[in-house]
Design brief:
about 300 residues, alpha/beta, Rossmann fold
């Protein structure tokens, strides 16, 4: 006689049960909305760490939960624009026109078809030359920040979140993003050399904070491309948590074919495959960010002034 109970005690059955549990947990909770706009620059000068993927999917996850979200694509490759299905041909007005030609940000904002409350400022090929053109302009480090604040102040209904996707470098475009933001989110992949260059990035952020934007802080570190089968991934994750216990989210983003496929369809993984492990992980990361709010700076918390 066959033991039918064994069919319910397999790795696949456990995986399906875990996915069902995570979906139920996400569905049963509503996310708090911030009282003022959170402006978050997503940056890591190391390429291939899931920076644009993280920007797009966190933005989509928060918009799906009811937040009003703006993504500013500041990477000349325009991958965030592609993933959100907004037009970014060379003849379309883009973030380039805002930071170089002083166009109003509101004139270049497009609504993403992805979710009803998700918007994007696209990047196109013209942005590739912006680093050189910015050198001779007045207040070259502050052009995006001034345009963004002017736009946000003009709105009757404010955005809850603004995400700025940076190029994988520490040039003038990234400096503009740091000056415009109040928070920095750093994606770190769980692979060899993950922490390489991170100290230089943190030093640059500290310089921006000291000289150009005293409100800036590293608020969030997200572990990406995690493969639980490898000892290396577990070691990297532990090293990051040891160095950044306050900033590192509990949620980890796994390696996922669905996450990689979604941009080719002009979608985030949140809408492309909402039941995939990658989608659930980004939804959980967004929920964790929303519930955490903005942590007080270390200097403030040590003085008893934190929340």
């Amino acid at each position: 006689m066959t033991d039918t109970s064994s069919s319910f005690d397999t790795p696949l059955a456990h995986e399906l049960a875990e996915i069902r549990r995570r979906k139920q947990a996400l569905a049963s909770s509503s996310l708090p909305l911030p009282s003022k706009t959170r402006i978050i620059t997503v940056s890591n000068q190391k390429g291939g760490v899931g920076k644009t993927t993280t920007t797009v999917n966190l933005a989509a996850a928060l918009a799906r939960s009811g937040a009003k979200v703006l993504v500013i694509d500041l990477d000349p490759q325009g991958n965030a624009s592609t993933a959100l299905s907004v037009e970014h041909r060379a003849d379309v007005q883009s973030v380039y026109d805002v930071i170089v030609s002083d166009e109003e940000l509101g004139d270049v904002v497009q609504k993403s078809p992805e979710f009803d409350r998700l918007y994007c400022v696209p990047a196109n090929i013209h942005l590739a030359g912006a680093e050189i053109e910015l050198v001779s302009l007045v207040a070259r480090e502050q052009r995006l920040g001034r345009a963004l604040r002017r736009y946000l102040d003009s709105l009757d209904e404010p955005f809850h979140y603004v995400f700025i996707d940076c190029p994988p470098s520490l040039g003038l475009l990234t400096i503009n993003a740091f000056v415009a933001a109040t928070e920095v989110l750093i994606p770190i992949q769980c692979e060899y050399y993950a922490l390489e260059g991170l100290s230089q990035l943190l030093q640059n952020i500290q310089l921006i904070e000291r000289h150009l934007n005293p409100d800036l802080q590293v608020s969030t570190i997200l572990l990406t491309m995690y493969d639980s089968r490898t000892n290396l991934a577990n070691q990297v994750a532990q090293d990051v948590r040891d160095h950044f216990p306050r900033e590192t989210l509990d949620t980890i983003i796994p390696r996922s074919v669905r996450v990689s496929e979604a941009p080719s369809y002009g979608q985030s993984v949140i809408s492309y495959d909402p039941n995939s492990s990658g989608s659930l992980s980004y939804l959980e990361a967004a929920a964790e960010m929303a519930r955490r709010g903005v942590m007080p700076k270390k200097s403030e918390s040590t003085n008893g002034e934190g929340e």
